[in-house]
Design a protein that fits this description.
Blueprint lengths: L6 E9 L1 H18 L6 E6 L3 H8 L7 E9 L10 E5 L9 E9 L3 H12 L4 E9 L12 E5 L5 E2 L15 E7 L1
Parallel strand pairs: 2-3, 2-5, 5-6, 6-7
Antiparallel strand pairs: 1-9, 3-4, 8-9
Helix pairs in contact: 1-2
The structure holds inosinic acid and magnesium ion (MG).
Magnesium ion binds next to loops.
């Protein structure tokens, strides 16, 4: 094989559609109970959380506002509110609001640590994070999500919104990707 031939292969299915649906329904119920009497601003962190977001919000029987944000983290190191680059901001001010961020996966924790600090600085009344997946063994910060769908081992996963090079987001399951070059 020549050097520029990269082969990607879906090695295994880590979480199938049935398990995803079951866990998403459980998370929705839990969020519904925790936010009873409130009208949270539920924020999809683009693009990875799109599929999870669409499934999850339909399992939360509460009034809510939708919003979206696209961010990228500046990587590791000491994280402050200055360490997150906002590629697309919220459409409305969130001061005084209960904000629930919906993320695809927490890896180092840099992105969510910086983003929650930023939204706190903007005066949100409360900020919680619901992440579909969590890779606790990869954490380099002290960030923990309030709600987690599944904790997974340190493998690169794709599908159900998660990508490799912008591909595989539309797979209905979570798979482990093997990349060889
Ligand atoms: P971190 O927690 O700031 O390190 O970054 C989390 C982000 O890294 C996620 O929102 C994903 O975009 C990306 N990411 C981390 N692990 C994976 C993976 O296994 N598959 C796809 N994207 C991942
Ligand atoms: Mg992401």
């Amino acid at each position: 094989m020549t050097k520029d031939e990269i082969v990607e292969r879906i090695k295994s299915v880590l979480i199938d559609e049935e398990r995803i649906a079951k866990r998403v329904a459980e998370l929705g119920k839990q969020i519904e109970q925790d936010y009873a009497g409130k009208c949270p601003v539920v924020v999809a962190i683009l693009k990875g959380s799109i599929i999870f977001y669409g499934d999850l919000v339909r399992k939360i029987n509460l009034p809510m506002r939708f919003d979206t944000m696209a961010v990228s983290s500046y990587g590791s190191g000491t994280v402050s509110s200055g360490n997150v680059k906002i590629k697309k901001d919220l459409s409305k001010d969130i001061s005084g609001d209960d904000v629930l961020l919906i993320e695809d996966i927490i890896d180092s924790g840099n992105t969510m640590k910086a983003l929650t600090a930023l939204l706190e600085h903007r005066g949100a009344k409360s900020i919680k994070v619901c992440s579909f997946l969590d890779k606790p063994s990869r954490r380099t910060t002290d960030f923990e999500a309030d709600y987690v769908g599944y904790s997974i081992p340190d493998e690169f996963v794709i599908g159900y919104g998660l990508d490799y090079d912008e591909k595989y987001r539309n797979l209905p399951y979570v798979g482990v990707l093997e990349i060889t070059d």
